[in-house]
Amino acid sequence: MRYVQVGLGYRAQALKAVMATMTEFECVGWVLRKQRTAAVPVYTNLDRCLDEVGADLVIDVAPHHSTASILRIAIDHGVPVLTGAPPGSTRAELEQLDEAAASGLAQVAEHHPLIAGHAARLTAVGHDMIGEVFQVQISATGPCHAMALIRAYLGLGIVPAVVRGHRFSNEDILASVDFGDGRSGIYDFTNNHTRVVLQAGRLLVRGSHGEISGDQVVHLGEHNLITTTYMQRHVDPETHHTTHITLGDKALWTNPFPDSGWGDDEVAIAGFLTRTAAWIHNEGAPPYPLSEALYDARLSLAITEAVEQDRTVNVPVLF
After folding, report:
1. What is the domain class of 2-84 according to CATH?
2. Cβ(186)–Cβ(173) below 8 Å
3. Which of 33, 82, 178, 277 is most buried, judged by most C-beta within 10 A?
4. Is the pTM of this model over 0.85?
């Protein structure tokens, strides 16, 4: 998989260590604002780079304000493009990406549903252990990632949504997203939540026949017996990284890169890149289309508007 990287922003750091050890990926060019000496050819113009280098993929790690033009150039060349999550931070930035989303060539690097704990819970949901999921409550990450996780647990695509929110005096944000048909998400977040070690992340997935609360699974078993079991994380004794996650005698998640020595985040990133390569080779579904990412970003902006303007915000279907 020959790829061109655009930019050297902070989003590049999350990919750098992973891609350096994935031999199926080969960087054949960098596109930067200024020329510099590097191990691969460096360009200051993406058009010229794609004209001269045979690339299978463009990876965009430049700032948000450049995303629209980078995607347009890559798509004009017929080259699939992977950009960072979220793809934009303002309504104007998102609107500029609608045409790129319609092309079907753009994906967004949203790897949170592939992180070990979430992947294990999603397997439990997929095995119908708690029945049909109708509500997800999350207090763990930023709003775009939270919306992606909520929809993954609900098994939802892009549907009309109604967002309500409130900010308390201590900067806590509490928002609800009504997706219709009895399905909803609750987002609870405190300013700087992900960097305050005294605030633990929380997740609750409610279904018609049980619920998952963190690592606890309560469900209706055989003979109408209510059972409570716990997911168990198994770690490598030397690296202390997760090898697999089980629920009783069932393996919910197994590390697909057991010899890498990677932590959960790196494993999820590598998993997303593997899915991206499979999609490009027509061997798998698109991992996270730009249209999905734009919807989650618009839900995120709707939460901000609902909180700041103290009103209900409707998020329509645009694709």
Report:
1. alpha beta
2. no
3. 82
4. yes
Residue type, 31: V
CB-based burial label for 81 (10 Å; 0-12, 13-18, 19+): buried
pLDDT digits (tens, 9 = 90+) for 73-88: 999 999 999 999 899 9
pLDDT tens-digit series, residues 213-267: 999 999 988 888 999 999 999 999 988 999 999 999 999 999 999 988 899 999 9
d(CA 88, CA 315): 17
Picking from 278, 268, 277, the residue whose alpha carbon sits closest to that of residue 18 is 268
Per-domain residue ranges for the chain?
A: 2-84, 112-262+271-280
Among the residues of the chain, which ranges form H helices? 10-19, 46-52, 67-76, 91-95, 98-103, 116-126, 143-154, 264-280, 290-309
Alpha-carbon span 43 to 54, nearest angstrom: 14
Amino acid of residue 49:
C
Amino acid of residue 35:
Q
Across 234-254, b (16+ Cβ under 10 Å) vs e yields eeeeeeebbebbbbeeeebbe
- Hey, what long-range contacts does 236-245 have (CB within 8 A, 24 or more apart)? 241/267, 242/116, 242/267, 245/116, 245/117, 245/120
Residue entry with tokens 């655009």: 6
CATH number of 112-262+271-280: 3.30.360
Q: In whole angstroms, give the CA distance from residue 13 to residue 9.
A: 8
Give the Cα separation of 44 and 36 in Å (integer).
10
